[in-house]
Amino acid sequence: MREHSRIVLVGPPGSGKGTQAPFLSKLLEVPLVYVGELFRSNVSGGTKLGKQAAKFMNRGQLIPDEVILGMLSERLSDPDTQHGFLLDGLPRNLNQAEAIDALLAQTSAKIDAALNIDVGRDEAFRRLVGRRICKNASSHLAHIMYSAPKQYGVCDLCGSPLYLREDDTRQVIGQRWDVWKAQSEPVVQKYGAEGILITISGVGTVSGITERATSALSAYFG
């Protein structure tokens, strides 16, 4: 992998982006810039942007793009991102994609590649509906079909209860998929038109998909 590799991770809900991101970050030796962590660190740290975000979150409203992009701008100014990064969770729409392009252009940088992890709607539904999360640690995951816990409803790692996230119900998953098709799929098409899109199948084992992704990226960067 060449130096200065700025990679965006894209794909529909249930494609496995969140699962693959930490593995790819480690293998590619670039920091993972994850939008969820940006929110948590800014809100818990009481930053100006974090306080702005908290106001919208407490009212149940969407956080405006300018707040999200402000957080991203600050993170990308950190020294560890100067030689590349893996971006997960952004951009979610064309406006955000264009704003990120403009942000990077300020330092004569650009997105080098967009890795698209592709899965079909039915597979995504199976993954999300069957997912269970530990109440003690959100990083402890189980799946009723693919990695069932030894004891029903109990986390294998710590013994805490497992639960189904509210946004993993069939109705909400359908809504999330429709939003992705309307708002985020055009971002994938944008990167494709620019010739920087790398699409891989997101079906298979976690390790197999990781290997597929790193091979595709290595071939792309030469």
Please explain how this structure is put together.
- With 222 residues, this protein is an alpha/beta fold.
- The protein contains 8 helices and 8 strands; from the N terminus they run βαβαααβαβαβββαβα.
- The strands form 2 sheets. It has a 5-stranded parallel sheet, with helices on both faces. Strands 6-5-7 form a 3-stranded antiparallel sheet.
- Strand 5 (131-134) and strand 6 (141-143) form a beta hairpin.
- The radius of gyration is 18 Å and the shape is globular.
- It starts with a strand and ends with a helix.
What's this, in brief?
With 222 residues, the chain is of the alpha/beta class. Helix content is 48%, strand content 15%.
Q: Which overall shape is indicated by the principal axes computed on the Cα atoms?
A: globular
Radius of gyration: 18 Å
Strand order of the largest sheet: 2-3-1-4-8
Helical/strand content category: alpha/beta
Total strands: 8
Overall pLDDT, averaged?
Answer: 89
SSE blueprint and pairings:
Elements: E1 5-10, H1 17-28, E2 32-34, H2 35-44, H3 48-58, H4 65-76, E3 84-88, H5 94-105, E4 113-118, H6 121-129, E5 131-134, E6 141-143, E7 162-163, H7 170-193, E8 197-201, H8 206-221
Parallel strand pairs: 1-3, 1-4, 2-3, 4-8
Antiparallel strand pairs: 5-6, 5-7
Helix pairs in contact: 1-8, 2-3, 2-4, 3-4, 6-7
